[in-house]
Every structure is written in C-alpha cells, then in structure tokens.
Amino acid sequence: MESIDPALLLSAYAQGIFPMADGADDPSVHWVEPRLRAILPLDGFHLSRSLKKIIVSDRFRVTTDTAFADMVALCAEPADDRPTTWINPVIRASYDRLFRLGHAHSVECWQDDVLVGGLYGVTLGRAFFGESMVSRVRDASKVALAHLVARLIAGGWKLLDCQFITPHLASLGAIEIRQADYLARLYSVLAGGDGAGAGAGAGAGAAGVSVPSPPFVAGDWGALDALGAEALGAERSTGSPPGYVIAQLLTKTS
Known about the structure:
By secondary structure, the protein is α+β, with helices and mostly antiparallel strands. It is built from 9 helices and 9 strands. It starts with 5 loop residues before the first helix and ends with a helix.
C-alpha cells in the first residue's frame, strides 16, 4: 500500500507540518501548517474531580502500543458526531510504518476486552504530536489523554502538540498559540531545550532559525511503567499503571 516515506514524514513534523486527507476515501494527502496551533502544556492538564474519580476507579483497562493499528482504525471510523475523518489508507499505512520504527505510539482504553477509545500520535525527540483520539464510551478519550500526559511527564517530554483546538481539548487544558510561537517552542525542544519562554513574540524570529538536526534527545516512553511497577512492587510491564499513580502524577503538576 502507498505510504509517505518515514524520513519525509518526520522531517515535516520537525518543521511544524503534518499530513491530512480531505476524507477517508480520498486517495491523496496534503500538508497542513495551521495559522494557530493547539498545545497542551504538560503542567497545565485540567484534572477535574470527576475525571480524577474515573481514573482512580480504573473503570477502563488502559494499555499502550498493544493495538496500534486497531486504534488508528477506530479513529478513522465514522461516528454520529463525525460522519467522516481525514484518515485515509495512505495515512494509516504511513503511521503504521512510523509505529514499527518506534516513532508512533497509541494509548488504548478497554472494557470487557473491547477497544472503546484512546489515541495515537507521533514522537520526535521530546515532542509528542497528538494525531487523533476517539471515544466509543463516555470519558474514554479523557482517560486516555490523562494517561498520555502522565506518561509524557514521567518520560521527560517537553511539548504536547494537539494541532487544532476544540472545546473538548480546551476543557482539559489545551491552549492556542500562533504557529510562529509554536515553531519557537518546537525548535527549542528538538535542540535540547525545554521550550519555555517561547511565548508571545518569541516566535517572531523562528522563521530565521534553522530546524535542529537529528539525532534528537528522546523521551522515555516506558518510564511511567517503571513508576507503576515500583508502586506495586512488581517488575516493569508494558501496561499502564493503576489509576491512582496517574492521578498522583497529574496532581503534582497541575
């Protein structure tokens, strides 16, 4: 199946660009560079009392990277509030290649062994680019995002890109910034910085700054699992830790 070359795709992300299709049945893709960009500051995740209760109750079994292709397929499915998506076969094949190379990850929420929600995205250095999230059961995507933020915090990530702002994301702490300011943050993170201080006006010179060259310092995707195993007195595993560990991490940083 046709796909975007992984090196080209990662180079695009390093420059603040990402691909989309006009519809799930559209055979072509185009490159997008939004004028305004949504990010979710990792120290600004909004953990409401109700969401914290859901997380701590472990209503969902949360895993990571166990069903990447299924997660992308679920995000691509039409729903009542989303009759079509931008995820076409080229997009699906491209991100599957990135996953096999270790540059894409998924967070899955399960109920009775049924995949009911989650998200997937791309990682480059210590920047994570959220691609899509979905709920087939109430609150599944919120729980997945909470687990993602906790995982990024534990693993040393510095930037969570959400692409476009939505009321749902805003309610969880996402903010909207100019693309120039986003690029300043992104370049700082890829160059080994923390992206801090790249606020209003800081991106004015971003256009004149060269894109940092790889290799980039990478975050540790499995660090959260080690924390969970330590809390349980068990060996490191591939599953997400109990909800109370997630809630503790998010409470400390919010």
